[in-house]
Amino acid sequence: MSNDRTDDYTTERARLMAEGNRLREQARESYRAGRMDEALRLRARIAEISRWYEDSQPEITVARCPHSGVPVRWPIDTVGLDSWFWEYLNPARRPPDVLPPTWLAMTGAMRLSDPVEHPPFAVVPGPEVPFVVPRILNSPGVRAVLGEVPVGRHTGWAISYFGPPPENVELVNLWGSNTYPVYEDGAENGWDWDVPRVSQYDFELTDWLRSGALLWIAPGDESATLREGPDGCPYVDLPGRRTITVIANGVVTHVAEFAGHGAG
Q: In whole angstroms, what is the distance from residue 184 CA to residue 10 CA?
């Protein structure tokens, strides 16, 4: 769960994100002015940048399936929140190469540290403390795994769910985005979305840990060993707002619900 990247990579990442953001604005202006050929040329370069960026995202071990023991590695930009991976409405991401067939969802939380990045789009990294979604975790056979994922100067937590697909239960948006992929037998089969609401989250983790429904991985544990029970768990009773953090238009706000359409 390390976020170490080379200086050359972070420099190139920053350069290309700046170029891409500039070209996006130029493309929008070209479309508005009716200069379609120019806009298409700009979009082609933006697509090149996006492909490089998605391919460069490191695979981070975020969980281990409690049922099969298979580790889950997810391509995540852990350099900072100023990049297209964290763009809430249109994230530039590549899917994992392999997921266990028991994988259901991955949401997340994040405690920000100053200075906070302010990219030209909305970023929604989750509440300031980790949580579970009871409607999913109460489903038969479902268990969750909580692990720490540093993102630049910020402290993130990924919460992954595993088990048989619950019947008539809405899943939860993929961490930092406004949709979630739907998988069947380990293969992506479309997408769906929900509206993040803290009223549907449970931030009190002790009982979930004690029941065995929620497991955890120690911070910095590269072996991703699953641990049970609340004793010694560093994620219990953390300080922080039990609201959804939104970074948009140069400010950080905290809300109880966030649909996010048109934000940023």
A: 35
pLDDT digits (tens, 9 = 90+) for 84-110: 999 999 999 999 999 999 999 999 999
Q: What are the residue boundaries of the structural domains of the chain, listed by start?
A: 7-55, 59-255
What does pTM read for this prediction?
Answer: 0.93
Please give the average per-residue pLDDT across 163-177, as a whole number: 94
What pLDDT score does 262 carry?
39
